Amino acid sequence: MCASYEVGGGFPEQELDVQDRSTRRKEQGNPKWDTSEYEALLKGGEQVISVLDEMVKLLEDMNIDEASEQVAVELAAQGVIGKRVDQMESGFMMALDCMIQLAEKDQDDKRKSLLEVIKETVLSHLTKKCPPHVQVIGLLCRTPQRESRHELLRRVAAGGGVFQSENGTKIQLPGANLNDIANQADDLLETMESRPVVPDRKLLARLVLIREEARNMMGGGILDERNDRGLNTLPESEVNFLTKLVALRPGKTVQEMIKNVMQGKDEGADNSSSDEESTSGGRISSGIAGRASVTGRRPLPVRPGMFLETVSKVLGGIYAGNISGITAQHLEWVHQKTLQVLQEIAF
């Protein structure tokens, strides 16, 4: 394979909730912590310091030179975290992320590198307890090259096994069903995209790529009936944006519009708290093609996963009605360019 693979992973539900509230608070400019966040951060911080102390003691007992330092750090992290992973506090990862940000701000590369090794090791241990298709998503999230992800998916679909990468490292791949991988990525996407604020656009872009690439490897590609999310009506924001794109000639302008929206700008900008308040106060937002919204509530911004879902749904309708020509070609071009933009955002 072309890239090295590391198992990424999951968090306990309570920890995800704490992290998500922390991210929203930071993005919305609210410096206040609620009691549960503060307590979780304190307990998590104490545990991170304890892990660091134990790792330092282990490293002091090792006779290591500069060349083997990184390997020694990774071994120490595996040894310390392997014993503690089941007792991790809910705020451990939140505290770890805060410490990584502080190290980056202080330009302390050595401390930052050490903390990042701890984070990757924890994620690896957590994911190994997950079902095979969840483990595969973690692997794919840490595989930057598109060709490498495709090779990984092929081998996973064939039953997995032990493989050797280009750098000589042996990798254990679980066997998993492509449909399960695509559905799991789609479930995660639906959860992230249904919120007013996207906590991590890089992760969002990676999940969209994983879903689309897994779907594309199945028999029917993007039009496979197993890919249907069950939308009865197409989402307003995505339809409005797609209508704008189709009205323009494919080219740089359209590609720039797609890029801005996928990055969370223009029609893809997160709803601010003030917007939500004014919406709840009765303001009627525009719906499809400028008409009043059916619900009377402001729709969510354009989201990458839902946008590609909408493109696929419209394409399916065109092909089902045997309406070929410029519109279908245009939509396929939009789909392709959106994936290219998401690859740039993701890695």
H/I helix tally: 14
Per the principal axes of the C-alpha atoms, what is the gross shape? globular
Major sheet strand order: 1-2
> How far from one another are the termini?
18 Å
Average pLDDT: 78
Quick recap of the structure?
The chain is mainly alpha-helical and 347 residues long. The chain contains 14 helices and 2 strands. The chain has a two-stranded antiparallel ribbon.
Descriptive report:
The chain has 347 residues and is mainly α. Among the domains are: 117 residues, no CATH class; 119 residues, no CATH class. It is built from 14 helices and two strands. The protein has a two-stranded antiparallel sheet. A hairpin with a 5-residue loop joins strand 1 and strand 2. Helix 7 crosses helix 9, helix 8 packs antiparallel against helix 9 and helix 9 crosses helix 14. The radius of gyration is 22 Å and the shape is globular. The two termini are 18 Å apart. The N terminus is likely disordered. InterPro entries: PRDA1. One of its GO terms (cellular component) is chloroplast nucleoid.
